[in-house]
Design goal:
By secondary structure, the protein is an alpha/beta fold. Among the domains are: 133 residues, Domain 2, N(10)-formyltetrahydrofolate synthetase (2-Layer Sandwich), CATH 3.30.1510.10; 84 residues, Roll (Formyltetrahydrofolate synthetase, domain 3), CATH 3.10.410.10. Strands 1, 2, 3, 4, 5, 6, 13, 14, 15, 16, 17 and 18 form a twelve-stranded mixed beta sheet that branches. The chain has a four-stranded mixed beta sheet with strand order 19-21-22-20. Strands 7-10 form a two-stranded parallel sheet. A hairpin with a 2-residue loop joins strand 1 and strand 2. Helix 10 packs across helix 12. The protein is globular and about 80 Å long. The two termini are 20 Å apart.
Length: 586
């Protein structure tokens, strides 16, 4: 049966394509893996054996050209960044190169919410789609359990310290940690959007029913445990980082870590298999490593350091995706992930759509589930040109980082040649290459122009730059707002200003890189301020140490670590038939 994205939903295309998937052993061979360096998990899934791979590759040099896929500020519908990543991989393979992709694992929250799965779309998907979307090989469950183990130990320790004096604690081999309940830094984790659990009270009952205190949930992928999985270089590094997670502070202000609670080893045991990336394939059979899944607006938004270090030594081209726009995902990719890997990108793909640029030009608000205004499906060059201010600002971010930019226009059926020509003219005038990519409709064949542009850009000399960690934390936060977002500066709430002073005074935290938690829809911290706004300030309302992951999180605007569920979630479309075939994933 011919696969036709214009008449078939993504899940149906995936179901048909999965009947002819390449054996995972062949995909592993194409990735450059030897038989002892991977093990099958399912008929179409495998785990890379990190220990075995590191034994062979260890200190081997980088082989691959390193390509980051980022985007302009998206609409709530998304602009096809994962689809572009997969289309590019397929296009590079069509041109005789050996690419490997690295992607994040989708969270159950978005999958059953509005966004749906992050498997790509049309003829540029990663397969099999159902396992990818519904837990894959269990990494998010392991993150959830490791997080909740720490939370359980913390609350139990507060209960025991309340109920027993120092002598009785000592008989059990415990030293009083004097945990201040008002300073608890972690929450319970759940991989669904459960706004009702954002703020709760736990420990109701008697003295043996836990410590009564205010608490709450964040979505599992917002847990620092997930960030640790993404940032670790190997199992030993993962184990070390887990022990550094700060759970609370004592009454004297001393950090109370998972190591203090003596659960860091057990947490590592939960994550033992999860240190191994999952091997999957594109719709056209190229290898993709799926590993870790931190959100981009509230976390670092990158797939794992481990998968990139493997791919960089095996592939001709390593294509990795960063979450949301260049202001969020690419900035964190450079300043946090590349600093951890030691890898420098050779080129960056900037995904843009006519639809999103029209929104940035002042088009009507786009709402999931609502009919698109006609302005988005008919030619309007004036609105599009105005919206290209957002495109130019993102091109500037890539060029300022010293990375050659390639604008990829993701084709929608309602686009016109004149609209594509306008975007190309603007992009090329700004010093970027530009390609019209129809990978959604044609797969790798539709991405050949993009693949050629990326290969051309990747041969340019680069002057990749990282931020100076010796600069004060306040200056580095201001530099992100001013130099990356184009704002005027930073405001701090009194709470955030006090934490800033404490962080800058502590040599262990003063030089950690910054992870901004900000809306994905705007350069500012106001989701409604589209285009390329000027004259705004960003308000930092809190600062949090992610000591295990190795960065400082700056919380801005109304960003929440537990998303909410809409009136009509995508879960209502998902079903399974008598043969076990799942439908409705998209």
């Amino acid at each position: 049966m011919k696969l036709d994205p214009t008449t078939m939903p993504d899940w149906q295309i995936a179901a048909i394509a999965e009947q002819n998937l390449r054996p995972i052993s062949d995909v592993a061979t194409d990735a450059g893996l030897r038989p002892n360096e991977w093990f099958a998990v399912d008929r179409n899934l495998a785990r890379v054996d990190l220990h075995a791979v590191n034994q062979r590759l260890g200190d081997a040099p980088q082989r691959a050209k390193y390509i980051n896929v980022t985007a302009i500020n998206p609409t709530p519908l998304g602009e096809g960044k994962t689809t572009t990543t997969l289309g590019l991989i397929q296009g590079l393979a069509k041109l005789g190169r050996r690419p490997i992709g690295t992607l994040r694992q989708p969270s159950g929250g978005p999958t059953f919410n509005i966004k749906g799965s992050a498997a790509g779309g049309g003829l540029a998907q990663v397969l099999p789609i159902a396992p990818l979307s519904l837990g894959l090989t269990g990494d998010i469950d392991a993150v959830t359990n490791a997080n909740n183990l720490a939370m359980t130990a913390l609350n139990a320790r507060m209960q025991h310290e309340r109920n027993y004096d120092d002598a009785r604690l000592a008989k059990s081999g415990l030293t009083r940690l004097a945990i201040d309940p008002a300073t608890v830094q972690i929450r319970w984790a759940m991989d669904f959007c459960a706004q009702c659990l954002r703020a709760i009270t736990i420990g109701k009952g008697g003295s043996q029913d836990g410590f009564e205190t205010d608490s709450g949930f964040y979505i599992s992928v917002a847990s620092e445990v997930m960030a640790v999985l993404a940032m670790a270089r190997d199992l030993a590094d993962l184990r070390l980082r887990l022990g550094k997670i700060i759970c609370a502070y004592s009454t004297s202000g001393k950090p109370v870590t998972t190591a203090d609670l003596e659960v860091d080893g057990a947490m590592a045991a939960w994550l033992l298999r999860s240190v191994n990336p999952t091997l999957m394939q594109t719709l056209e059979g190229q290898p993709v490593l799926v590993h870790a899944g931190p959100f981009a607006n509230i976390a670092i938004g990158q797939s794992s350091v481990i998968s990139d270090l493997i791919g960089a030594k095996l592939a001709d081209y390593l294509v990795t995706e960063s979450g949301f726009g260049a202001d969020i995902g690419f900035q964190k990719f450079c300043d946090i992930k590349c600093r951890a890997t030691g890898l420098a990108p050779n080129a960056a793909v900037l995904v843009a759509t006519v639809r999103a640029l029209k929104a940035h030009g002042g088009g009507p608000a786009i709402k999931p589930g609502a009919k698109l205004d006609a302005v988005y499906t008919s030619e309007n060059l004036a609105l599009l040109e105005k919206g290209c201010e957002n495109l130019l600002a993102h091109i500037g971010i890539l060029k300022d980082a010293g990375v050659p930019p390639v604008v990829s226009i993701s084709v929608f059926p309602t686009d016109t040649p004149a609209e594509h020509a306008l975007i190309r003219r603007v992009a090329e005038a700004a010093g970027a290459r530009c390609a019209v990519s129809n990978h959604w409709l044609k797969g790798g064949d539709g991405a050949l122009e993009l693949a050629n542009a990326v290969m051309d850009a990747a041969n340019e000399p680069t002057q990749f730059k990282l931020s100076d960690l010796s600069a004060p934390l306040s200056k580095r936060i201001a530099d992100i707002v001013v130099k990356v977002y184009g704002g005027d500066g930073v405001d701090y709430t009194p709470e955030a200003r006090a934490k800033l002073a404490a962080l800058e005074a502590n040599p262990d935290t003063a030089r950690l890189p910054v992870c901004m938690a900000k809306t994905q829809y705007s350069f500012s911290d106001d989701a409604a301020l589209l285009g390329a706004p000027e004259g705004f300030t960003v308000t930092v309302r809190n600062l949090k140490i992610s000591a295990g992951a190795g960065f400082i999180v700056a919380l801005t605007g109304e960003i929440m670590t537990m998303p909410g569920l809409p009136k009509v979630p995508s879960a209502e479309n998902i079903d399974v038939d008598d043969m076990g075939r799942i439908s409705g994933l998209f």
